[in-house]
Amino acid sequence: MVNGEYISSFNLPFTTYHLALMKGNLIIISSPSGGGKGTLIKEVLRAVPDVAYSISFTTRQMRDGEINGKDYFFINRTEFKQLIEKSEFLEYAEVHGNFYGTSIKQIKRETELGRDIILEIDVQGAASVRTKVPEAVSIFILPPSYEVLQNRLVNRATEKKADLNLRLQNSIAEVRHNEEFEYIVINDDAARAANDLQSIISAERLKRIRQIEVIRAILNSFDNI
Ligand code: 5GP
């Protein structure tokens, strides 16, 4: 964000000073595999300023088109264990037979700069982040039906048959966890769902508690008159 730009949340010139006073939100996004969260998150990252993406570590095989260090940090199980021992993860879980973990360092770096950070993690990871960071915002993306989810996964064709079936099987339990989330976005229409996600992020930034330091600085200027 450039000095002097306007930000709608407090309608003032957005300066580095304001940025330093703001701490970013942790935004948890979960959905079953094939729920379409990848596409929605890409759109939010493109459209909303000051939102970062938490790049997880995983032991899963890299898919065609994925980039190490962009989609995930792809590591082996021994390296994953070492990171657990060094307490590098905010949370980690075994999902569909592979390990996935969220880096504490990345989250600290981004939120201290005042950026929100999206954690695209499974329902187990979401539960453990909620316990550790109760102020985290949690969003569940629900596909409009099982059939739509199945079609998306089949058409995506990124998984072998056995893995695809495992993901579909796991989705039955995963969707039940929607109850643990604050917000539900139904992904029947990608443009509308992306818009819903952006609205949630904007509304969370507008919460008084999220702006307390900025408000204090503004009120100070009134006291000094
Ligand atoms: P995929 O293999 O399709 O990229 O991801 C499989 C599942 O793992 C998805 O539900 C995704 O949200 C989840 N996942 C990705 N990164 C993490 C992470 O760091 N922690 C946890 N708990 N789940 C993750």
Distance between the termini: 30 Å
**Average pLDDT level:** 89
Instruction: Tell me what the CATH architecture of the domain at 7-54 and 116-223 is.
Output: 3-Layer(aba) Sandwich
**Secondary structure category:** alpha/beta
Order of helices and strands: EEHEHEEEHEEHEHEHHEHH
**Biggest sheet, spatial arrangement of strands:** 4-9-3-10-11
Taking all Cα atoms into account, the compactness measure Rg is 19 Å
Strand runs, count: 11
Supply the key terms.
225 residues; binds guanosine-5'-monophosphate; 11 strands; five-stranded parallel sheet; alpha/beta; disordered N terminus; four-stranded mixed sheet; Rossmann fold
Report on the architecture of this protein.
With 225 residues, the chain is α/β, with parallel strands linked by helices. The strands form three sheets. The protein has a five-stranded parallel sheet with strand order 4-9-3-10-11, with helices on both faces. Helix 2 packs across helix 8 (190-206). The chain has a domain at 7-54 and 116-223: P-loop containing nucleotide triphosphate hydrolases (Rossmann fold, 3-Layer(aba) Sandwich). It contains nine helices and eleven strands. The longest helix is centred in the C-terminal third of the chain and has 17 residues, at 190-206. The protein has helices at residues 16-21, 37-47, 77-85, 104-112, 123-132, 146-156, 161-176, 190-206, 212-223, and strands at residues 5-7, 12-14, 26-30, 51-53, 57-58, 73-74, 89-95, 98-103, 116-120, 137-142, 183-186. Strand 1 and strand 2 form a beta hairpin. It is globular. It binds guanosine-5'-monophosphate.
